[in-house]
């Protein structure tokens, strides 16, 4: 049983029977309830999203015009590096874990997550890690400036800010592994009677597969950064050619983590879209079993494509061919998902509340990111586009227009269950249309810049790239301001009040989470429901 049921503190409110739960700061510091921990993950991720967004807007401020305008190249590189790390490890991943904590027990009919205290610990590793990352700007030599990938030999030569980044990555990795263990155990051991694996909601399936990916690859990242740490301070030469090491080995180890990591940030989003589309199409998900198998296929294939990030490192042609074809193969199960979502909508009784708008928007923009990935999979093209803005456009279409839009779809879908209030649809749609327009104004021109040869991670550029950079910068600022609008005009008012939400606010929604009241009470499913 989660919650704290003993003690005489005035901070504790005693209800009837088992419904005893803490209030005040103890409720959050010692939280063992999955909903409270999910809420803390979501608040943390929104905070980091805003910090990472400010760094993005500073990057685009510098790139608005050629010449060094505001920042020295060293500081600019720190902004670029920390923007990536904060968005990936501080915003996108904790947001999906927040969704998992909130929704998985409700969806499988469990009373809580399997390991409540480990759940608390896995969250509280994140704030100190975030402080290390952000605080690294203020130490001698500044923050990590070797890119979010922390490539050796640059990362071996940085100041103490690099050590802070390494420790932050270790803590966030440990948090992810504990969260993954919790999710796997909850899904496999705590499902309601009658809910077989092939009756689970798709969100639970995508998270189950993602959790196995996390356990497989987070230790690989820990290995890579530990080797950097020992090269920096303990005289090893893993990545020093003069001592018999190899800097390219860092890339192999890092990308063996890094490519599955992309799917760690996207698969739970696929799960959210697979919940939202059927609800607003008022039809069951088309091809449920094929969706499960496609998700598992993507996860397995993600382990054999890592060197498509490394076509320019001088690998043999045979290896280039292998990684090229393996990468193209991933398009098949991904395409299965796209077609299944479209087939679910086909001849459905569609309505376009904001959650559905973001889901449809996701399918469109994620497909653009998928196609540019397929183009980059071709080694001869990739060698030309390597480290240009074409690559930046591709992965931002996957992660901003992909992961982030899926998170917004999930937020608009489940927020009534979290807060007990319906969202103001007029404001929500204003947020959607601004996000959809400005995300494309920001990232689509980057394809043109990349094809014209503009390299990424540079604080300055030749004058012929000025026009598209100005368009991109304006788009980025307006996209950023749209998210500030979302926070202050949609999220905070929804927490404070609004129209009362029924237990099932969406007519076509299916699943156990809609059988409990809105907002979901502190304790749910103390007696497991039976799934017929």
Automatic annotation (TrEMBL):
Native source species: Massilia horti
Cited function: Cytochrome c oxidase is the component of the respiratory chain that catalyzes the reduction of oxygen to water. Subunits 1-3 form the functional core of the enzyme complex. CO I is the catalytic subunit of the enzyme. Electrons originating in cytochrome c are transferred via the copper A center of subunit 2 and heme A of subunit 1 to the bimetallic center formed by heme A3 and copper B.
SUPFAM superfamilies: Cytochrome c oxidase subunit I-like
Pathway membership: Energy metabolism; oxidative phosphorylation
The name this protein goes by in its record: Cytochrome c oxidase subunit 1
Keywords of this entry: Cell membrane, Copper, Electron transport, Heme, Iron, Membrane, Metal-binding, Oxidoreductase, Respiratory chain, Translocase, Transmembrane, Transmembrane helix, Transport
Family from the record: Belongs to the heme-copper respiratory oxidase family.
Heme as UniProt keyword: yes
GO biological process: electron transport coupled proton transport; oxidative phosphorylation; respiratory electron transport chain
UniProt-annotated location(s): Cell membrane; Membrane
GO MF, any single term: heme binding
Superkingdom of origin organism: Bacteria
